[in-house]
Write a structure and sequence with these properties.
The chain is mainly beta. The chain is built from nine helices and 40 strands. The longest helix is centred in the N-terminal third of the chain and has 21 residues.
Amino acid sequence: MVRAVEATTANRKKTVPASHRNFSQWLLVTCAVSALNTGLATAAEQTAAEGNGVSTQTAASGIEEIVVTVERTTRSAVDLGGAEVQRILPGTNSLKAIQMLPGVDFETADPWGNNEQNETLYIHGFSLQQLGYTMDGVPLGDQQYGNWNGLSPSRALISENISRVSLSSGAGDLGTASASNLGGTIETFSIDPAHTRGGYIQETLGSYDTTRTFARLDTGAFGGENYLSASGLYHDAKAWDFDGHQRDAQANAKFVHESENGKFTFFFDYSDKVEPNEDSIVHDAADPNPPYTRPFLYPNLTAALNYLSVAGAPPASAGNNFSNYHSAAQRTDYLAYAKYDYKFNDNMSWSTTAYYHNDAARGIVAGPVNQAGLPALFSVYYPNQNLINVFGGTGYAVRTTEYTINREGVISTFKWTLGDHDLEAGGWYEYNHSTQYRRWYPFAASSTDLTPYDRPTNFNFTQYAGSGITRDAQFHLQDQWHAMSDLVLQAGFKSSLQWADGKVLVQQLNLPTSTNPTLYPNGSIDTLEGFLPQAGATYDFDGHEQGFVNVQKNLRQYINYIAAGLSPWSLGSQAAFDLFKQTVKPETSWTYETGLRTKRDLDMGFITGIDGQISYYHVEFSNRLLQISSTPVILSLVSGSSILANVGSVKTDGVDAAVTLHFGPHFSFYDTISYNRSVYEDNYTTGATNAVVPTAGKLVPDDPSWVNKFIARLDLGSFSGELQGDYVGKRFATYTNDLYVNSYFLIGAQAEYRVGPAVSWFKDVTLRLNVTNLTDKKGWGTVVVGAASGTYNTYPIPPRMVFGTLSASF
């Protein structure tokens, strides 16, 4: 569960001072009362050590741990083991898996957390695109949907190949390769090839025609100290609220060569993913009783044709919650890296990674030609023409956003232990060329590419196209000084440099009568921040308690993306871009953390051990950027002129507390409770009249003030099981806090039976059962925050689903 300070055997034999015993009892009582007050409970597990999958166990109970508090850092940092990622649900995205960690709120409309269109993530007041992400140290970008500089962890690494996931919830390592980590980092690590020859196969079947097939082969040692693993995945699952299938074919390969002074690693990932998307539910005054789901009409083309009026419009009674024919995200990625770790001697080492990533992707929507402002757009390109005929005669048109990403980069770190000082210096450089094309295609009843899995052909016109070249460079230097045997002081800084250039390849056309035409800008912005400091300390109290404190400044570089997102290149005029460049600064944050970790064996009746951590954080977030647009969020099939403005600052205060109680060798109970208060400091103005939007003093929307998670785990040897609980408090749905979604509490269950160490020629066979949303709770998970008061959008919580998994190694 949560494993804090690593106590050595010698430390465990020391006499525990009374002050320390009193502290442990106080922390135990405090955390237990917290759990009782919220009606939640929790448990223990296993973590796979990076590289070889070896699990660790608690000295107190023998139960394998899954959530490990990292004591080597001056920040709040925890590791989640790969075994627990799979226990939550085989194939779970690492971002969804960390929802069980302190201070995390992750929402999605599918049980694996793999649908990128409707995922949201908040950690200590920061959202998905304000965090940093890596896989084996390789940057994964900012996770923006329709990404321009990376890919999701689930596309970078097959879930079954995860060794561990590390969360730094306040501020990441100075050497983390990310240009977006304002509020912390999420690092995913892959398993190294096994040192013995063998393999592993796993099949998952379950609700909504789910089939997930995974197979892995390990060569063991060959040609000396060489090791290779290769694995493949095929995933197919029907969407629970419409007739569409989430499909993913993926392959991983990893080669390791070990020598006396070095280790060479090569990793390759291929991912081909097609995922029909959900349509969100619009909540506004026009529809006081919105539907719970908004299913597509695909594949019933007859029903789709009858759904529209002769003018190609959906029924007026549907309002904003009309049905499209289909929508999907198509993604094909190639990711590779080569890494060499060289050890000069016991005190000096050097690690260098070179990587390459290519992505070809598109988002597709097939919808009515007469909705969401489309007639005005189409009339610019086809004046005085019958739009139904122009787009194939069905009343539907197909819109795509087509992306490409070509990234290459290098990361290098030098470490030198000089007396009591652990010195580290390193750098990261990345070159990224990305493009975005918005195109419109016909939708004819006779076409053969009318499914969400096909790529449409013969487009009618290109609405706009953009190309961006972004160069990121970071350098860091730090010293970790072992000032005393129990005291470590750490100080350092990093430089974050970005040179970004965006060009419009195809400019959007406007009506000749338009007084404020949308004309996307060209130009470059260089953001050169040379000094982002960090300082911290840890103090070890007799090997059982450890205090830590940390302060760090971070910066989020600009998004180089045309016509969408918080990007200067999405501004609707060259003048607006030029003004932004001269007057607006990038988002920055100062994060302050302090906390205490503990790990003890106890003799308190049934309670035999305790692991825990409590931390307080304060964040000052400055230069917050907000895109202000006249086009409603979900209806923005037509890009309109927008304003990207600095709307002030945010102040955040919060507390995370996590505890694991061990009840002998077979049962443990983990619970974490988090309180977060993120408040806007300023109002902002919008529209031609500069109307004031009263956000000062309002809480950041979609970020709950209270979250509580638990895992209660029972391990009886061949049989084990756990209950997982996730409580998310009330969340505001608008910047003005006038609307909100209710709190919810979900329970998941998992049980497994290990048949034995030998079944035929298999080493072991395991049967597993997973149930998500055990009580079949309904409610709103993902919230798309309303730009103005009175409206917002949501995605529903997935219903109860049941999955069975059979796995075996050989």
